[in-house]
From TrEMBL, chain A:
Superkingdom of origin: Bacteria
GO molecular function, one term: helicase activity
Source species: Streptomyces taklimakanensis
InterPro entries: CC_star_Cory, DUF7990
NCBIfam families recorded: CC_star_Cory (NF041419)
UniProt keyword list: ATP-binding, Helicase, Hydrolase, Nucleotide-binding
Protein's UniProt name: DNA helicase
Automatic annotation (TrEMBL), chain B:
Family: Belongs to the peptide transporter carbon starvation (CstA) (TC 2.A.114) family.
Keyword Membrane applies: yes
Domain of life: Bacteria
Domain CstA N-terminal: start-end pairs: 2-347, 365-505
Residues making up the signal peptide according to the UniProt record: none
Transmembrane annotation, as ranges: 6-26, 62-80, 86-107, 128-151, 163-180, 187-209, 221-244, 256-278, 290-309, 329-350, 383-405, 426-446, 458-482, 489-507, 519-537
Protein name: Carbon starvation protein A
GO (cellular component) term, any one: plasma membrane
One GO term of the biological process aspect: cellular response to starvation
Keywords: Cell membrane, Membrane, Transmembrane, Transmembrane helix
Organism the protein comes from: Streptomyces taklimakanensis
């Protein structure tokens, strides 16, 4: 009974989320790109008023940053001091 | 004639079609193979390509294709009598729509989940793909313009639906917040959401809203259309999780509830059909049954739009190829059920033939209003709901169908506008794209007058362009079957009938538009006729080429095998 209820709930959630999965993934990526730019603003040459708070988030962004610059058509990191690849 | 046997015969035909004909199609024609590695597995990315349970996928597919069209079409077409509409809906679903929807799903799954537009480039030629974009643009434009008028008419004819129709927007906004912001259980949210929706229906029934005339310098008709376009513009610009997603979801749940109560009511009340089987005394100005019946009932018998959904999203989520039979064919059966419900409501919900004839006084009359009034009477006698409450339930159901399709239509049309901008090397932002879309949609709706007369007059053109799209999909399926040296007759026969009827109807309408000096519709119709000829030419060339080339290897498109066939 419990497993049946769980599969019903899973089906319901799939029914809710499925049609919009792609749109939501795209929106999330856009938000992530914006967040990435805010954190890396200083390194990208944009004056960053929140640099003091965001600098310690940089290491967490290396992997994302790598995927981002490849999406932007740059095979290697465009920033000398961000050595993701 | 009693409606109960009609319902039972219809249900038996659909069941027979699914059990027998779809099995024949699956085993002999498409040769569905459970060991075929579907795109959902091969290209699984957690976003587009996700293997999905077949019942859930059927739910997605069915709610995506179900809109106001399977209600509007049959409820207009019964003007020729209930029998032609009944036969076209049942036989059309079994031999045309099921074949077409299952075929589109199969064709796309065999081609890495690509859309019909891309497939037309591969199988018919590059010009086929361009044609596809033109037809899509026209179809979406017609949906946006026509549905604005359908909703406006319902809001005016059933003022008790005003509160639930607009209240559903608030319910959807709250569901979006509850699911995403407060991470509440979806089961609970669903129950509360549906209860709130029906609470609003009760409230609306007690407090009907009739707008003063004029309101803000406009007639109520003009005001509602403007309000709907403003709403659709805002809805299409908001992040989807805020409004569109929860709205589509709650509407999907409501679809099952609404269909359920309508069929149960027919079973319980067994109403008498007052309309004639064949209407010998059609009102003056009613076009001939052939070919107009075949384009008036599009969704509910065969619809090119279903091929877009099949190949656009459903094929990317197919867990096993054999699931295509349930998702594609049974999805078409679901649409047929909705159309059958609309026929019964629009013919058996009136007390006398005179009452029915008063509603169907001219071609294009009846429609959703007849579905709401007639269906309301059936709910009243079946479930004992008060007549006005029953009408409110059905009007709200029809408005929600039309509104979710309209706001999604505006969003999709914006994408087409933005894509066209890219081709012309002009960057069109979201807001600018939406404004262009709204201006074009509203322009078409108001092209015949401030009451939105232009919106519904193009409805027969929706049928023709929709059937044209179905012809394109069927010709792709036929080319694939010929290449594999399988029997193409199950695709070629519906293709020939649908194409001839759509083309014939477009030519008949051309004369009508010329007589009426209606240059806008005449131009759109001309585009459709040119596109139809184009499709025919390209398809014949592609089929001839396919029959002359050496046959395809048995597993030419089987990318990878996983285990033995089951």
């Amino acid at each position: 009974m419990t497993s049946r209820w769980a599969s019903l709930r899973a089906g319901l959630e799939e029914f809710y989320a499925g049609p919009y999965r792609r749109t939501l993934a795209r929106a999330r990526r856009e938000e992530d790109d914006l967040f990435r730019m805010v954190v890396l603003a200083e390194a990208l040459g944009v004056p960053d008023p929140a640099a003091y708070y965001t600098v310690e988030l940089m290491p967490a962004l290396y992997e994302d940053f790598h995927a981002w610059h490849r999406r932007m058509g740059m095979d290697r990191s465009p920033l000398e001091h961000v050595g993701c690849c | 004639m009693n409606a109960l046997p009609l319902l039972l015969i219809g249900l038996a035909m659909f069941a027979g079609g699914y059990v027998l004909y779809s099995r024949f199609l699956g085993n002999r024609v498409y040769k569905l193979d459970a060991s075929f590695r579907t795109p959902a597995h091969e290209l699984q990315d957690g976003v587009d390509y996700v293997p999905t349970n077949k019942f859930v996928l059927w739910g997605h597919h069915f709610t995506s294709v179900a809109g106001a069209a399977p209600i509007v079409g049959p409820a207009v077409a019964v003007i020729w009598g209930w029998l032609p509409a009944f036969l076209w809906v049942t036989l059309g679903t079994i031999f045309f729509a099921g074949m077409h929807d299952l075929g589109a799903l199969w064709a796309s799954a065999r081609n890495k989940g690509r859309s019909i537009g891309t497939l037309s480039g591969r199988y018919i030629g590059g010009r086929g793909a361009n044609l596809f974009l033109v037809v899509i643009f026209l179809l979406l434009l017609m949906v946006v313009a026509a549905f604005a008028v359908v909703i406006k008419n319902l809001l005016i004819s059933t003022p008790s639906a005003v509160i639930p129709a607009w209240g559903a927007v608030a319910v959807a906004l709250l569901i979006g917040q509850a699911v995403y912001r407060y991470k509440m259980s979806l089961g609970l949210v669903t129950v509360v959401g549906v209860a709130a929706l029906y609470g609003l229906i009760l409230l609306g029934d007690a407090v009907p809203v009739e707008l003063p005339d004029p309101i803000l310098g406009m007639s109520p008709a003009t005001f509602w259309i403007v309000a709907l376009f403003v709403y659709a513009g805002i809805a299409s610009l908001l992040p989807v999780w805020v409004l569109l997603q929860p709205r589509d979801y709650i509407n999907g749940v409501q679809l099952f509830v609404g269909l359920g109560i309508l069929f149960v009511s027919v079973l319980l009340s067994a109403p008498t059909i007052v309309a004639p089987a064949f209407n010998d005394a059609v009102p003056a100005g009613t076009p001939d049954l052939v070919p107009l019946l075949f384009v008036t009932v599009a969704c509910g018998a065969i619809s090119g739009f279903h091929g877009m959904v099949s190949s656009g999203t459903s094929s990317k989520q197919l867990d096993k190829e054999t699931d295509a039979r349930f998702v594609g064919y049974f999805g078409a059966v679901g649409e047929g059920l909705l159309a059958l419900g609309a026929i019964i409501a629009a013919t058996a919900g009136y007390r006398t033939l005179a009452d029915w004839e008063a509603v169907y006084s001219a071609f294009g009359e009846g429609g959703v209003a007849a579905f709401v009034a007639g269906g309301g009477a059936i709910l009243n006698s079946g479930l004992g709901l008060p007549v006005s409450l029953s009408s409110t339930v059905l009007a709200t159901m029809a408005i929600l169908f039309a509104a979710t399709t309209m706001d999604t239509g505006v969003r999709l049309l914006r994408f087409v506008v933005q894509e066209a901008g890219e081709v012309a090397k002009v960057r069109i932002g979201n807001v600018a794209g939406t404004l262009i879309t709204l201006a074009v949609g509203a322009g078409l709706t108001f092209s015949q007058g401030a009451g939105g007369e232009g919106g519904l007059r193009i409805w027969p053109l929706f049928g023709t362009s929709n059937q044209l799209l179905a012809s394109l999909t069927l010709s792709i399926v036929a080319v694939m079957l010929i290449r594999k040296r399988r029997n193409p007759a199950p695709a070629l026969i519906p293709l020939a009938i649908v194409f001839v009827m759509a083309f014939w109807a477009a030519v008949v309408q051309l004369g009508d538009f010329y007589d009426a000096r209606d240059w806008l519709l005449l131009s759109i119709d001309l585009v459709i006729i040119v596109a139809a000829l184009w499709v025919a030419f390209e398809a014949v060339v592609a089929m001839r080429r396919a029959s002359q080339e050496p046959p395809e290897a048995l597993d030419a498109d089987v990318t990878e095998k996983v285990g033995p066939a089951r």
